[in-house]
Design goal:
five-stranded mixed sheet; Nucleotidyltransferase, domain 5; 2 domains; six-stranded mixed sheet; 13 helices; 309 residues; alpha/beta; 43% helix
């Protein structure tokens, strides 16, 4: 059996297609395209018509890719579709083109993102893990501890702050100065303090395009090579340098960086700042980057959402 999962995110659409082999899912292909579905949505509570069109086109392309590989596609939306007043328009148009989308709750998104890490054999030797998943409009943080051979969730939260929301808010200038970065840091810290427990809970693992693009830019990885990104480490010091250095470049300067994914130039510096503030809140000096995401955990859990054997 082959299955495709499309992550219809606030800033990008990610597709994983995999085949079930025994009790595991083996990835066949992964794609990513920046669509900006939630651009300005936090401020307007609306999805723009251009963003809807771009995302529907990307979703249709994902369906064609899945079909060509003999995989059934299941698509799920996240924060932008949770907060947009006109989300029903998008969902209706998605159904009309035979690419229906189910909207995940923040709790579901956080839980699935954590499972993508906790079920990864690469982390089998860990006894406590904190998962950080920075998105366009929300950031999921969950802390887990291994007790009696089973992972127990100590805390889990979907924090209503992300790269796209900040780009259309406190960090709207493409080259924010030190004062703007400081004010944005205070805004981030205030949100994080409401949800993240004080002190570090185990190994920090960062998911999402911000973390993976920091690695590909740092190591000049072109073309994309998941094997070189998965399990790479980022120190607090270098993430902090990225936050300041990338901010000074502006969109054009970031776009020219070797290793950056097209479209990420408008938000990568903000993703670096968010990751810096999360690591600071956890009092941890480094994190490990994972190329997995909640879409990987969803591969074997579709039936939980739609029923079936």
């Amino acid at each position: 059996m082959r299955r495709g999962i499309a992550d219809v995110g606030s800033n990008s659409l990610l597709l994983v297609v995999a085949e079930r082999v025994g009790e595991t899912w083996q990835e066949i292909t992964e794609t990513s395209v920046v669509t900006g579905l939630g651009a300005g949505t936090k401020q307007t509570r609306l999805l723009s018509q251009d963003a809807i069109k771009r995302t529907l086109e990307a979703l249709a392309a994902a369906k064609r890719d899945a079909d060509s590989l003999g995989a059934e596609l299941f698509s799920f939306g996240t924060m932008a579709l949770r907060i947009a007043d006109n989300r029903d328009e998008f969902l209706c148009r998605a159904r009309e083109q035979n690419t229906p989308v189910t909207v995940l709750s923040g709790e579901e998104e956080a839980t699935l993102g954590a499972l993508a890490v906790l079920e990864d054999p690469a982390f089998a030797g860990e006894t406590s893990i904190t998962v950080l998943d920075i998105g366009g409009h929300s950031t999921e943080v969950s802390c887990h501890e291994l007790r009696g051979g089973r992972w127990e969730c100590l805390s889990s939260a979907s924090i209503p702050i992300g790269t796209l929301a900040l780009r259309y808010g406190a960090l709207s200038d493409e080259s924010p100065d030190a004062g703007e970065l400081l004010r944005a840091s205070r805004e981030i810290d205030a949100e994080v303090e409401r949800f993240v427990p004080n002190g570090f809970q185990g190994k920090a693992v960062a998911l999402g395009a911000s973390a993976t693009n920091l690695v590909t830019v740092r190591d000049s990885i072109v073309p994309w090579d998941a094997s070189r990104v998965h399990l790479a480490d980022l120190s607090f010091e270098e993430v902090s340098r990225f936050a300041g250095g990338l901010s000074r470049l502006g969109d054009a300067g970031r776009r020219a960086l070797v290793g950056i994914e097209p479209g990420r130039e408008t938000t990568l510096h903000i993703g670096a700042l968010l990751l810096e503030r999360l690591l600071y809140a956890l009092r941890v000096e480094r994190c490990t980057v994972s190329t997995k995401g909640w879409r990987h955990a969803m591969l074997g859990r579709v039936e939980e959402h739609f029923g079936g054997p």
